[in-house]
Amino acid sequence: IVSNNVADDMAIEYAGAPAIFSQFIAHSTISHNSISNTAYSGISQGWGWGSYWPAGHATYGNISINHNMITRVMTRLHDGGAMYFNGCTNKALGANIISDNYVDQDLGGTTSTGIGAAWYFDNGASNWQLTNNVVTSSRAFAYFMAGSDDPNTPCMGPDAHNIGVSNLWYQ
Fold first, then answer.
1. What gap in Å lies between CA 79 and CA 159, rounded to an integer?
2. pLDDT tens-digit profile of 60-99?
3. Distance CA 99, CA 141 (A)
């Protein structure tokens, strides 16, 4: 459980560090945190672009990310989001729910080559439910990466898939 924390002015020297990061976790909760002024993503979950599964199976799932306030993120980098998701999750471990969060001023993707959104589902991101969230002053509410099987393409791995979105307020 990562709960009731304040993270402000993160990734000053190494811009690629998110405020909260976890790779292959199960049965976890990230809630009631306040994250602001980050060079990169506020919360980053998973890894492997859908192609890396420890011990031959996905060990990543049953995750709840709720009641977080994330403001002014992606101030230096342009390929991420307030919440960034990467890699496959295992549905058998339980539901992955992103609910009741507030995102303001996700600045990702503000350049012509940048990709960014409040919720960024990169290659292989799977089995997430995004519900009852609010986004203001951000370029987009969500980005869903389409993968590629071409080894010469920098974004390899399967498409983001099995992601539900409901009750989202975006301004």
1. 16
2. 889 999 999 999 999 888 888 999 998 888 888 989 999 9
3. 14
